Amino acid sequence: MHIAEGFLPPLHAVAWGVASAPFVAHGVRSLSREVKANPESTLLLGASGAFTFVLSALKIPSVTGSCSHPTGTGLGAILFRPPVMAVLGTITLLFQALLLAHGGLTTLGANVFSMAIAGPWAGYAVYRLLKRFDAPLMVSVFLGAFFADLVTYCVTSVQLALAFPDPGSGVAGALVKFGGIFAVTQLPLAVSEGLLTVLVMRLLLQSSKADLARLGVARPASRTGEQQGAAA
């Protein structure tokens, strides 16, 4: 859902940049605290950023001036919470704009707000709500990633509708138009991203369960289980 370089009116581009800045600044502090307190998190942080970079680079042509693609932000939001994902997402979007001509510098604020802020917060909220009601971990992960993707596309649709209202029906009509076009590709992509995030989480549970337990994603191994494992 990256909005292309120069596609937004200057006032809109500046406004979205101003709206995104406090979230990214807060994320920088959160990321710094995480790395200082838990240096062992660096590998998982890098993996979360790489996951976002690779998935969000897989673009499919959609609305003029934008595109459809997975976001990959749900995984990082679940592991490290949305403020950290705001930084990882911003870095991803900046590098994609500079190296892949995917998105743009003038539209960076808008793209950060939709993909690195709104999406991760929505996905994390769904994940935490389901965890509170004792939903299975993988169900929570799937729906968290699904809604992180889906809300990103919804916010991008709002951004485009505000910038280019329909001559007859205004912003509401433009929102229906942009959202309807995005939905054709974005709904299947959101489902696919949810399934892929579940697969990655399963792999992490096998290889990095102690880290996931420290992050509050997985339950720590019981002492009884540890003693049985040691005896075996």
TrEMBL record:
Question: What is the membrane topology here?
Answer: Multi-pass membrane protein
Cited Pfam families = CbiM
- Taxonomic lineage from the root: Bacteria, Bacillati, Actinomycetota, Actinomycetes, Kitasatosporales
Q: Which organism is it from?
A: Streptomyces antimicrobicus
Q: Which family does it belong to?
A: Belongs to the CbiM family.
What's the subunit arrangement here?
A: Forms an energy-coupling factor (ECF) transporter complex composed of an ATP-binding protein (A component, CbiO), a transmembrane protein (T component, CbiQ) and 2 possible substrate-capture proteins (S components, CbiM and CbiN) of unknown stoichimetry.
The family database entries (PANTHER family) matched by this protein are listed as: COBALT TRANSPORT PROTEIN CBIM (PTHR43627:SF1), PTHR43627
Q: In which pathway does it act?
A: Cofactor biosynthesis; adenosylcobalamin biosynthesis
Q: Major location, coarse class?
A: membrane
Keyword Cell membrane annotated: yes
Spell out the subcellular localization from the entry: Cell membrane
**Which keywords appear in this protein's UniProt record, sorted alphabetically?**
Cell membrane, Cobalamin biosynthesis, Cobalt, Cobalt transport, Ion transport, Membrane, Transmembrane, Transmembrane helix, Transport
The residue ranges crossing the membrane are 41-58, 79-102, 108-127, 139-161, 181-205
What is the annotated role of this protein in its UniProt record? Part of the energy-coupling factor (ECF) transporter complex CbiMNOQ involved in cobalt import.
Name the record gives this protein: Cobalt transport protein CbiM
